[in-house]
Write a structure and sequence with these properties.
With 436 residues, this protein is of the alpha/beta class. The protein has 11 helices and 20 strands. The strands form 4 sheets. A 9-stranded mixed beta sheet has the order 1-2-3-13-4-14-18-16-17, with helices on both faces. A 5-stranded mixed beta sheet has the order 11-12-20-19-15.
Amino acid sequence: MISKEPVQNLLDFIDASPSPFHVVQSIEARLAAQKPAWQRLDETAKWMLQSGGRYYVVRDDSSVVLFVLGQKPLAETGFKIIGAHTDSPGLRIKPNAAGSSDGLLRLGVEVYGGPILATFTDRDLSLAGRIAYKNEQDEIASMLVKFKQPLLRLPNLAIHMNRTVNEDGLKLQKQTEMPLILSTITEQQLPNTCFSALLEQQTGVSAARILSWDLAVYDTQKGVFWGANSEFYADSQLDNLASCDAALQALLDNAVMQSDATRICALFDHEEVGSGSNKGADGSFLPDVLQRIASATATGSEDYARALAKSFMISADMAHAYQPNFPNAYDADHKVIVNKGPVIKVNANHNYSSESVSAAMFADWCELAGVPYQSYSHRCDLPCGSTIGPITSAKLGIRSIDVGSPMWAMHSIRESAGVLDHDYMIRALKQFFAAQ
């Protein structure tokens, strides 16, 4: 009998988190339900840390680093880090988004990362993210916003007008064919005014005070189990909220709370666009947090360098599962099968941070946890994606590995994976945190 609880928790997490800002909000809600309490640290304040204490730091609302301070000095144990990312590829609303055409109000979008654009057609879409505004004290403030009802749509062109779509595939011109239909509009109505009024109605903030926004398009259809035995599940944003959830469930497990080592989950925004931001993996966020932990624990520069030399990071991102309808897309000797365990991702050009020693260490943790594992190598004649693994490993000088749960249709608005694999990944990550 397959236990659905770990995946149901994941689906609830995803459905409550339609933007990276909501991901962090959902994580904070999960932490608030934990005892003993987690303390949110302010980057502008002095940190006072205690052994065994539970802490987290948020940067710009959509990246978060959580850590449990270990019982032993950093120089003796190093840091145990799991990294993942809070963002997913999709569509973002432009600053001057609203426009009218033939009695229809449409919103202009910019493609974020590398989504499969065709999957956004004929879906019940809506908006989520944050607005920035001037409050009653004339100070800049921000607020999360989420429209729960289907608000937008990208209707497909009928086959009678696109006769070769089944042979050539659906191709969308990003500038002219991607604006999303929002409503009907009269000639007397101004598009930007209509959109601002919609934001005012949703947030309660006067339209005149709303200055800007970070709004993502999301699919309102909730996650589901599927398959003859409910052995699969489907939802949006499995890449990479499934890894975020597995990392969190491992960190929050009581069995690993009293570990000697300092355990960390670093969940970054902007991975899908290269991580090059103040809150991305290629920014200073994680190094800043590690250095401040060292400073707050009176760990000098020499001992901090020793701590990094003893540290290990698991970069957890999703992996490409074998889809038998498309055998030529895969290396025949590296077929990754759904529900067969976590995947060690290897690339000779270091698009992944895995190497022989880190791979052997992760394999050992899987065996100790009673979890099967697999190895993946991309076809040599296809470009290989990358992760935060090589970035953070190079920045910090620590040993790292790239792993992930196998999934289908990566970067689709509706992705699928195996129920067993999520539990396997959680168990493997728990073993990593618990290992001495």
